[in-house]
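Hi support team,

I've been running sequence recovery on a batch of backbones for a student project. Most finish fine, but this one hangs at about 90% for roughly twenty minutes before it completes. I'm not sure whether the input is malformed or the queue is just slow. I've pasted the structure tokens below so you can try to reproduce it. Let me know if you need the job ID as well.

Thanks,
M.K.
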């Protein structure tokens, strides 16, 4: 079992930056990849970014490409999401997730992820 705890959310003005963290504990050696998803009020949860734990390969949603950077620190068992140039439409609860599935075609779908954190709120004011 993998436990995930997000932190770093908050209120920021449009154009600002935030860094989210996801601390991972438990059977981390079974994780192939980690990802960030988000859910805005009244909308379905959507993919933001993912990173393969072994080689650091990254995947981004179009909405995140060029503004967000996903990274991981294997020694600290922590994943990060650096968000810049934030927009009001980035307002959502952000979730980190862990995948034990090897995928050769990316990690943009929820069904690849079996463990989830409790989420952290990000609010971007205009």
């Amino acid at each position: 079992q993998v436990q995930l705890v997000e932190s770093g959310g908050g209120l920021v003005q449009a154009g600002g930056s935030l860094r989210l963290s996801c601390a991972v504990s438990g059977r981390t050696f079974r994780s192939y990849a980690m990802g960030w998803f988000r859910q805005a009020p009244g909308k379905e949860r959507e993919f933001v970014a993912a990173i393969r734990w072994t080689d650091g390969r990254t995947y981004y949603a179009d909405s995140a490409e060029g503004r967000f950077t996903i990274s991981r620190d294997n020694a600290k068992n922590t994943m990060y999401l650096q968000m810049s140039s934030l927009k009001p439409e980035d307002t959502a609860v952000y979730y980190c997730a862990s995948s034990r599935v090897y995928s050769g075609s990316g990690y943009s779908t929820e069904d690849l992820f079996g463990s989830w954190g409790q989420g952290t709120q990000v609010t971007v004011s205009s």
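--
Follow-up from support: It reproduced on our side and the slowdown came from queue contention, not your input. The mean pLDDT is 93. No action needed from you.
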